Write the structure tokens for this entry.
Amino acid sequence: MEVVVVGGGASGLLAAGMAAQRGYRVTVVERNARMARKVMITGKGRCNVTNASSVQDCVANTPGNGRFLYSAFSAFTPQDTMAFFEEQGVPLKIERGNRVYPVSDKAVDIVDALVAFARRQGCRFITGRVTQLLLDDNVCCGVKLETGETLPAYAVIVCTGGCSYPGTGSTGDGYALAQQAGHTVIPPRPSLVALNTAEEWCAELQGLSLKNCALTVQDTQTGKTVYTDFGEMLFTHFGVSGPIILSASAHLNDVVNGRYTLSLDMKPALTAEQLDARLVREFEENTNACLGNALAALMPRSMVPVILRLSDTTGETKCHSVSRAERAHIVQILKHIPLTVSGLRPFEEAVVTAGGVNTREINAKTMESKLVSGLYFAGEVLDVDAYTGGFNLQIAFSTGYAAGNNV
């Protein structure tokens, strides 16, 4: 019996190999001449293939419908992913944050291993674009290509990815196929993406990285804190980026200018009282120095003009002349630098896509459609998305394994 896999990315190649291993004749239809182009650019070309953590950690690091993935993560764990690639002849290593990479630091080794696995199982590959599902009385019985050619099939697995990095072929084709089958598609949006800010002073600090910064994100519509984090961030010509900002973006829904505000704490290890005492000591030791020079001991020098403006103080003021109220205002700003999110950066810059095929309409154990028999979905086309660190590729592998192993 024939199985058609639409999309030759991470989830598609593993799904194809698993289905072929079980005795099916499998055809992979990929619109690009080369397979898994998006995998080639993950981890800055090194390929952060998974995260060496528990199933529970994988769920916790998947803000977009993590619980839906519990069965898939359990059936094909990060340890299974690591064992799989080791068996394919790709030695792996674990780095900071349990991030797993090939020892070679080359994503192409992961891609070649996936393609070789599928080929060894007997999969055939077609370069083309699927434009339509063949449906008969709520049963999926094949696909139609852009050329007009039809491929009859016992089952179809849609692994077309999302909309992020459209240059790799992820242009949302799977959403149209899902809708044709009657599925609900949660509107896609960029995730793990940098943020535009209304404040123009970020451009003055372009390239400046803060290593130990605390972030709080608030929704002004509800008054609720939607995300907190601690770590590294980066100022850019358009706003802010860096690890904690990318993770925060996964929690921003229906972004309009002004809905979400960011608060940056430059001194998270100190309370406001401790920071005030630190300023008092600094000013006493530099009593005749200018305020701007004294503050440079507490932060990157390029930030001093911004902090002075935000706290309505002047850098020429002598330290001995700084009033208690002025000092309190400086402390307030250092603990709560305000920023306003004006929008998300585009899909071209997003690591993953949030939104996609509604998981309520998918069997969590098999990835089969609850609406159409013989139709499966795997990978980023589903409404699932995780933080950085290898979790998104693990989603691709776990859902691809579930689909291919349960056809």
